[in-house]
Structures are given as C-alpha cells and as structure tokens.
Amino acid sequence: MLIERWTGITLGRASSPPRHHATDGLLLVAHGSACRAGTDEARALGRHVAEARPDLAVELGFLELADPPAGVALDALVARGCRRIVVQPLILLAAGHGKNDVPAVALEARERYPDVDVLFGSPLGVVPELLAIGAANLEAAGADGLPLLVIARGTSDPDANADAMKAARLLAEWTGAGFVDVGFTGVTWPTVPEALERLRVLGPDRIGLFFWFLGNGKLVERARDQVAGSGLDVVDAGYFGPDPALVPVIEQRRDEALHGLARVSCDTCSYRKPWPGMEDRAGQPIGVGHSHLAIEHRHSHDSHHHD
Q1: Could you tell me the pLDDT band of residue 220, with boundaries at 50, 70 and 90?
Q2: Which 3-state string (H, E, C) describes the chain?
Q3: Quick one: 8 and 118 in the same domain?
Q4: Can you give the pLDDT at residue 267?
Q5: How far apart are CA 79 and CA 74, in angstroms?
Q6: Domain count, the chain
Q7: Could you give the CA distance from residue 32 to residue 223 in angstroms, rounded to a whole number?
Q8: Are residues 184 and 44 located together in one domain of the fold?
C-alpha cells in the first residue's frame, strides 16, 4: 500500500527521507470520503498546516474510506522521531467520531508507544473563525443578507445536533440573514427535504445556502441534488473547504491539548449525563467506539466497502 506523507512543506512518499527530525508531531485525523474531491481537500488543508508549522512533523490520516488510516499515519510520526504527538480531529462538531473514534486512535497509540506522549485535541467547534469563513463565502456568492439555509451532518448525539443549530443561528446573526433554517443530511430531524419544504411554504424569493461541512462528499452531493430538485431559488455558498483561515483554529486546538484544556462541554453530553433513550452511553469510557471505526483505524481502507 502506498502511503502519502507530509515531509515538511511538500507531500511526498512514505519512503522519502524526512526533512528534519522533529520531536513534536501533529496527526490530523479526517473522516475520509468516497468522493475524491473530499479527500483532496483534506490533503490540501494538511498542506496548509504543514506550511504554517515547519517546526512540526505533520501527518494526515483518515478514519475510513481513504488511505492512509489514522493509526498508520501515527506510526509514521513515531518513525520520524516524534516523542510528543497531538492527535487532532479535523471534525467540526463533537459527535461519535470526535468522542469515540478519534480518541481510540490516541488510546491505542499510548498502549503501543508508552514512551511517546500522545495527546488528544478537541474538535474544531463553533468559533468566530469558522463563522467568518462561512460569512465570507456567502458574501462572495452574493447571498449575504438572504434568508439562510444551513445544511449539517446529522448525528445521534443531541449535543452535536444542538451545536449545529447554534452554528446556523450565529451565522445568520453574522450575515444579517433575518431568518435561518437547518436541514440535516441524515440520522436526525429536520432532514434536508423537510427544511426545503418548509422554506417552499414560507415562500422567500431567494435563499442563501451554506454547508456546515469541512469538505465535499456523498452527503453534500446528495443534499445538492435535493436542493436542485426543490424548485427554490437557492444561492449555494458551498462549505468551508481547505481554507487557510482554518489553520489558526487547528493550531489553537493543538495548543489547548498541550495544556490539558478541552473545548467540548460535558453539561449536556449523552456520554456524561443520562439522556432519554441513551442511558447506556452515560459514563462510557472515552475511545469506546460506537462503530467499527474504533478498531479499524490501523487497516487499509482499500478492502472495506461502505455505502
């Protein structure tokens, strides 16, 4: 299996000699996508981080659907001489991937490399830097001030779904939208078709659209097909993409991890407080995966098939 790796600023091959023997490493863990554009965007964001921090050894790994797997990318950092590694999820909201699957990468690494200090960073969250990117995209598309539809990834985590609603409201406040609705791509409500139908009934002349997604993928493409078939006049402002403005947020999360700080709230987390219908989650140790991803992050994704 060919493993791409970050060697300083440029993306090289696994056999390429490292440019330096950094003792500090940063593992960026993206979800992965069957959409080539989505994985290319994750790699471009990784390049931005490596360019901004030549003092760090930076590797990118994926949870599924793309290579290299996150565990293999962490192995590469250890092979490059890193003795302190921050595992940083390239994930917006703290749902199952951020609370279970990515922490599992860090926990397993601690067992395999007891002499390496492996730390875990928080998901990127809902922060002004991300809102500014969304607002800039809406303005560039000519959609600022229009009634707004924000499409987000739905999860089984109530706290993460609430954060998506919060993000949409804050983006509407930032852009002066005056009205905002949210549609989720699955798992929870309201779905994208339900949000589109509500907007159709309300009857605005035009709607601004922003995807609370880091990159392209099957969910974004499917939602765009649903929007196109709605008959509404929609101005699509896209998603975050590999915007260099994301780099300071990633750097801040790394710095917080080094100082033992967490940006996620436990007050309404279903893994820390009993939640109706999810009582079995409360008190579950971090890194216990809700899916196969927590135990497969060291294996090539070429042999796995996903819908």
Answers
A1: very high
A2: CCCEEEECCEEEECCCCCCCCCCEEEEEEECCCCCHHHHHHHHHHHHHHHHHCCCCEEEEEECCCCCCEHHHHHHHHHHCCCCEEEEEECCCCCCHHHHHHHHHHHHHHHHHCCCCEEEECCCCCCCHHHHHHHHHHHHHCCCCCCCEEEEECCCCCHHHHHHHHHHHHHHHHHHCCCCEEEEECCCCCCEHHHHHHHHHHHCCCCEEEEEECCCCCHHHHHHHHHHHCCCCCEEECCCCCCCHHHHHHHHHHHHHHHCCCCCCCCCCCCCCCCCCCCHHHCCCCCCCCCCCHHHHCCCCHHHCCCC
A3: yes
A4: 62
A5: 9
A6: 2
A7: 18
A8: no
Give the pLDDT band (50/70/90) at residue 23.
Answer: confident
Report pTM. 0.85
- Which CATH number does the domain housing residue 80 bear? 3.40.50.1400
Task: Examine the fold and report which residue of 236, 261, 283 is the final residue of a domain before the chain moves on.
Answer: 236
* Residue 60 shares a structural domain with residue 92: yes
> 7-13: which pairs have CB atoms within 8 A and are 24 or more residues apart?
8/50, 8/54, 9/47, 9/50, 9/51, 9/54, 10/47, 11/43, 11/46, 11/47
Residue 58 pLDDT > 80: yes
Residue 132 lies in domain:
128-236
Instruction: Specify whether 157 is located in the same domain as 117.
Output: no
pLDDT at 219 over 70: yes
Same domain, 294 and 277: yes
